[in-house]
């Protein structure tokens, strides 16, 4: 929808009111010059941030880190690290203050005290109090100024069920104390009544996601059940005490589920007549006008009005970044002008429907508020039906001007400790100092006409994608399960796949599906009584037939033009996308991988097809090193026959990636999958055949690894072996491939990815909300059965106990169950052998470390509940050997230097992670952490093709990274061709006549 906000009947009145408000807010005003002259450091910090973009970024990063720092020397050291960066231009006063040699020195301590005091003062500008007593004092002051309030409880992210329960209890305590205090408050007609109706003096604002730590749109039903009971309790409690409840809106992913839950709950008989409840709409969202229309239609059906708080939205950067990373459409408007225009359109919509909805217009933009007043006055909207809202500390003068004009103003007051409140503070600082901020533009003496002009949509920038601008590879988008349509498709796919249970899948040899003597059942690890299908395993004799067919097909395939081979891969990628939900369902049911992770695996398989197609076309160009009289061409040719031995843990993505890499480079390929995931590779086979791979070029050869796998590895006609699996088998293959067999006229190339013992380091400056969530995802996603999974977390002692306590509670809050249930985060392990081996390691762990958590698990499948060991010795068995299950070792270290030493102290070097906000630690990890893939301040699994090529070194593997620019070279032989082009002393010379 393209917004068109035109000068309308409301415009003259809007301008008149806006000019009055602007005059009132600009009295006794001064800006940057006077701010810089003032002695108050909090004002100076804000002024500097506005005038210097580089300083703004580093300063806000420092402020984000500040609450985690425990001493003045730590603060001083981080000040220097963040603000001493060469790229940051410092004001003289700040440069002078940072000119200390040692963080322990007196000047260092003075700098730390000055800046931390300034940040604390700044925080108190936007945070109404650190405890209820301070909040009551704040709201009593606001009431004296004839302003109403709503209180928002700041806190750590709710990542455990203990925290979710605590959130509800803290709100009940807050309501009780505010109501008790309100008994002594004088009645103020301007805010305590409207049109003869008494209004609640106390209002609080709550977030739905804080009522359930595993709130997830994919599990819409489960989230609704868990959240709704807690909301009902809060609404009953508030009614009993006479307080109002308003529901905030958060990230876009939660929007539809939040609205659905509230609309369903507020139609229940018990709550249908309540009018003291509110919901929120964010105008920066592209679908917010339609949401507003839908809510109004629902309110007409409900028959009793509710408040809609209209805000512009506080997560613009986050939403924009997430959509870009996920390759999803941008949910927010790219330009603030478009948001302002949409805000005005929705304001008009709400006020025109004032008999069904109470409008609460939340903005610090004088024009936005003036527009609302102009419409309300023109339509004679009753005072009960609308109010103006501002954030505490953000629109003080505007609020006063609105009160003076006789309007009801409510101030949104966050309260809580400064540590968890810092994320809120950063959002407010970003808003205050952004170039497009009305508050900033107002301070900068912009002309009145410019400040109050109607939003000009011709200036709104068109939406563009950076990847398209710079020509980079753009990966497939994972399913966004916040969309109802995607959830329905997934459910239908499960139904379709279940109807196919029990079918037989035969090997494909030389273009024919062939019968076998041996057949095995592939079972659902979530419920091993369910047979997914029957798989025919080839014999050694059939393996030889496949090898001969590949040899016969090779001459034709190597001569097939690269463009033709690449297009077959692209078609395979398109077919995978078309069958995404079905392929995902097969992964869930055959190997027990939860739905979201299975969907991401399909994306990875698609990316391998498309990326390797592009890469082969790039490599085909070769390189020319011509000189006069001579041409020199560096080109590539295929090696011959590739044997791909794929694992069960990424049964589609890794099998597909290794196979299509071998194929697009012109090699004939035999795919021998792990026996437990052979149906998924049978489905991949269907797709490759449909995409146009010729007979004999690709063959699907399921069989026993010890027999068929060993035979193919040792075969003299095998040129390339691409393997992913255990270190033991990988080393055996490497050794076997090095032995020259009779009639073998080449050396075999081995590409082997052999696992890891991956560590995440958490240092004293880490954001623990982020670190706990990242470690839980990395350790227990797919039950720890990823070669990239975190099996060790190395934590500095100053935060060790706090981290372990939150880690244990967050893990306890995970849902363990059958992989196809949308609520499941931890599914089964692959089979009985894996389950029993993991149990043995758990017993070893109990002998050498402290058991911090062992969760129970369902009995009907191959389940093992997450296990956490603390006080683990760095050289212990569970800290050194790859377990490949949901078992996590937490190791305590003295400092970051020791953490790096411990992290590097294994035979592996695959993935690693660091949670830190200390620039020098991040730099040191980049240089010294011995891993192939290092992830900083994020989880360590889920590498994305092209963006994060994947692979390690030491005993984690041999070969170039999958999904990277060197990978295809392993399947190719390079050749140099030199031709003398002189004839009888004559040669064409470029540029000569």
Biggest sheet, spatial arrangement of strands: 1-4-5-6-7-8-9-10
Q: What structural category do the secondary elements indicate? A: alpha/beta
Question: Which geometry do the CA atoms define?
Answer: globular
Approximate strand percentage: 15-25%
Estimated radius of gyration: 32 Å
Distance between the termini: 60 Å
How many β-strands, per DSSP?
33
Mean pLDDT: 92
Largest sheet: 8 strands, parallel, barrel
The helix content is 40-55%
Task: Please mark out the parts with pLDDT under 50 across 5 or more consecutive residues, or reply none.
Answer: 1-7, 28-39, 462-469
How large is the count of helical segments? Answer: 36
Summarize the structure.
This protein has 36 helices and 33 strands. The protein has 993 residues and is α/β, with parallel strands linked by helices.
Could you explain how this protein is built, in words?
By secondary structure, the chain is an alpha/beta fold. Helix content is 46%, strand content 16%. The chain is built from 36 helices and 33 strands. Strands 1-4-5-6-7-8-9-10 form an eight-stranded parallel barrel, surrounded by seven helices. It has a seven-stranded mixed β-sheet with strand order 25-26-27-24-23-29-30, sandwiched between helices. Helix 3 (41-51) crosses helix 4 (53-65) and helix 4 (53-65) runs antiparallel to helix 18 (418-433). The radius of gyration is 32 Å and the shape is globular. The two termini are 60 Å apart.
